[in-house]
Design a protein that fits this description.
With about 425 residues, the protein is α+β, with helices and mostly antiparallel strands. Helix content is about 50%, strand content about 15%. The termini are far apart.
Length: about 425
């Protein structure tokens, strides 16, 4: 090993060494090892090869010396030269082969010595880097812990569960199916080409980033569309918001632009509390927030104050005049039946923004019952039976119904997984929980 230790330290700017480091980093990553572990393993392997090869070289050198002696012995007198000419020739050929072998092996040994030194240098550098990282970690441990705590606290303060409980509000997204529905604020897809079912299936199957509003129970709040249908959200992450129309714009399925000044926790809280527009209870306009990764609690329809009063467990029968005058006719009940097929729970939002779950729906007799009023925080704690619409199979079924219209905005990974599935459009997945 003396020959190995005699090699000088690698000079800075040695391109061969730099290339070895780059290759070793790539290989270490592929093998799931650290660069230090790989360098130690490679150095050990090279040293083992060096030692075993050196033993062979020494053995060949002894053999070469013996061949030379044998040849010299045969060449001592002219008679031997003549009689043993053939043998001398063969010995010379063997000597030449062995000398060539030793020369090649010694050249390879020099390469091994250099590699061993290179790996030594890598080990030394990684050891020093490790020491520096340990020192930096110790110096910054408290700082890192503080930053991690701040990050987790920020994320918690953006969660729908936390905000619903903190402010006692429902998070809703209107589904607008009218000629006036906006499309200029969606650069990802032309929403004018999407009907109600399309929009609902996108929300249920693709988890798009949504514009949402909040409603406080017993308030004058309204929503953007002030229409009849939408989804109640039980989970998600709020990016930002304003206490009025925030002019947000969809740039892709999962991203929506909102100005930077509206993204802080303070801005989100103000958007919900609405201090500049009459307050959380008396404010009669709508606010707008951006929600990522929405978790649908259910689908809602709105109920006006001049319709039958809703009471817990009491059958609601719509009179023909109500059906005719308040848009609750054949088309409305067909709409209701279509929503039921998605497996999502159904809710009703009363004129004062109280929310009840709808059950015992009878499409033939056109009646239903309602539960007691829900607390906003209950939306995040729905029993499992009311969450079947969030299962993979149900989400895939919703996606299948709108796939051809939105394939261009579906992320490549999700689209590929869907195209390879064998249950596309399988209506057997639908289960009515109502």
């Amino acid at each position: 090993m003396e020959k190995i230790n005699a090699v000088n330290k690698t000079e800075e700017g040695d391109s061969e060494f730099d290339n070895l480091v780059d290759h070793s980093k790539t290989l270490a990553g592929e093998l799931g090892m650290s660069l230090l572990e790989l360098a130690k393993e490679k150095k050990k392997s090279r040293e083992s090869d060096f030692e075993s090869t050196q033993e062979h070289i020494e053995a060949y050198k002894k053999k070469i010396e013996q061949l030379r002696n044998d040849i010299d012995e045969l060449k001592k007198n002219i008679i031997s030269r003549i009689l043993d000419y053939k043998k001398i020739t063969e010995l010379r050929k063997e000597l030449s082969r062995d000398e060539s072998f030793v020369a090649n092996e010694e050249e390879t040994q020099q390469w091994r010595i250099k590699m061993i030194k290179y790996y030594d240098d890598i080990i030394s550098q990684e050891d020093k880097l490790g020491q520096l990282m340990d020192e930096a970690y110790k110096d910054n441990a408290n700082f890192d812990a503080k930053k991690k705590t701040e990050f987790l606290e920020d994320e918690n303060n953006r969660s729908v569960e936390t905000l619903a409980k903190k402010h006692q509000v429902f998070f809703v997204h209107d589904i607008i199916d009218a000629d006036w529905k906006p499309s200029a604020n969606n650069h990802a897809i032309n929403t004018r080409n999407l009907d109600f079912d399309d929009q609902l299936n996108i929300v249920l199957g693709l988890d798009p980033t949504l514009p949402v509003s909040t409603l406080s129970p017993n308030s004058k709040n309204r929503t953007f569309g002030n229409g009849a249908w939408g989804v109640l959200l039980g989970g998600g992450r709020i990016v930002g918001g304003e206490d009025s129309d925030a002019a947000t714009t969809a740039t892709s399925l999962t991203s929506r632009w909102i100005k930077q000044s509206s993204r802080s926790i303070e801005a989100i809280d103000d958007a919900i509390k609405r201090p500049r527009v009459g307050g959380k209870i008396n404010g009669s306009s709508y606010n707008e927030l951006v929600m990522e990764r929405p978790e649908v609690a259910g689908v809602y329809f709105k109920w006006s104050s001049n319709l039958q009063k809703l009471e817990n467990g009491v059958d609601v029968f719509l009179q023909k005049k109500d059906q005719r005058n308040h848009g609750r006719g054949d088309a409305w009940w067909d709409h209701l039946g279509g929503v039921m097929k998605t497996g999502a729970p159904l809710f009703v939002i009363e004129a004062d923004n109280n929310v009840r779950m709808v059950y015992d729906i009878n499409l033939k007799n056109r009646s239903f019952k309602v539960t007691p009023k829900y607390d906003p925080e209950n939306m995040a704690n729905m029993p499992g039976v009311y969450k079947q619409h969030t299962d993979h199979s149900f989400k895939k079924a919703a996606m299948s119904k709108v796939f051809d219209k939105v394939a261009n905005i579906i992320p490549k990974e999700k689209r590929k997984a869907f195209e390879q599935s064998d249950d596309r459009g399988n209506n057997d997945l639908y289960v009515n929980v109502h």
